[in-house]
Amino acid sequence: MSVPEPFFIRPISKKGATDCCILLDRPAYNRRSQHTLSNIRSLHRSPLAQLIDGKSIAQEIRNEIRAEVADWVHTGHRPPQLTVVLVGDDPASASYVRGKQRAAEEVGIESTTLTPDPSISEHELVDLVEKLNRDPDVDGILVQLPLPPHINPTRIIATIDPDKDVDGFHPENAGRLMTGQKGFIPATPFGIMELLRRSNVSIESKECVVVGRSNIVGKPTALLLGGPTGNGTVTLCHRKTVNLASHTRRADILVVAVGKVNLITADMVKEGATVIDVGINRVPDPTRKRGYRLVGDVDFKNVEPKVARITPVPGGVGPMTIAMLLRNTLTAATRHAFA
Ligand code: GUN
Fold this sequence. Notes:
- By secondary structure, the chain is of the alpha/beta class.
- The chain has three domains: 1-48, no CATH class; 77-184, Rossmann fold (3-Layer(aba) Sandwich), CATH 3.40.50.10860; 186-318, NAD(P)-binding Rossmann-like Domain (Rossmann fold), CATH 3.40.50.
- It is 38% helix and 14% strand.
């Protein structure tokens, strides 16, 4: 049982209040506003977790990038340039791309979105990417996924110049990450590491469990946590893992990136753990105008009281991905200038 951090008890003189209430000096408690005295005991037994606020951490990073871009331009360089290639008319992809473009502009990164005809052949798309590779005014290239079914994404990603691959999806960048060389780290794992660092979560010698082994989240996250930056001890779980709970229960740091609602329940986490929920799932919700709400892979309501820190969904890992894409684009620009 972890000991709750100290909190203050203050009487509230609020019209109509019949009981003494407490306000707690931790964001998670305050978020819940007021608790009656009769709840104090249960609060002691079940302190709420500190929320890792990805939205504000991402904003902090974007502010830093904006200042760095301004310095970069002030010292006589052209602004960093990001070219996004969007093929097809998937509304979700179009919306993501608009978000990336807006975020880039906000920090002073120039952004261009190319929208070739959806009937573009794989060969023509390879040609387009090669042209961007040769263009000295392009620092970062991002081909938005998914691509239409007639185009092989692996071939397209492999065509991007690894030094302009700000997504960090190119096999060369995956290899550089694995072998500890300078490259680009995919935005989500990079964002997870920043969330942990900026929340003062020490990884060194901690038991880290990553659930999900995708190339763009699970595998690179496991490498980062267990590599020389993290120095954690990592277990990578996946769909064939037997008795998942026996692994997750050992985790001081648990990262879940599967895409399955309520995959991680309260009995599967260790008290006092740090939980990073990468899942973004839609669940029907007739009370919402759009008819659904977003939830992660973790049963937030029941897991939160048991752990020390947790990322919410939305507002946790999600906002970090765009911030880290911007960071990679600025890095690409500075590396190109000094190459
Ligand atoms: N589609 C959804 N997320 C991403 C991303 O981070 N990069 C690319 N290229 N496509 C995506």
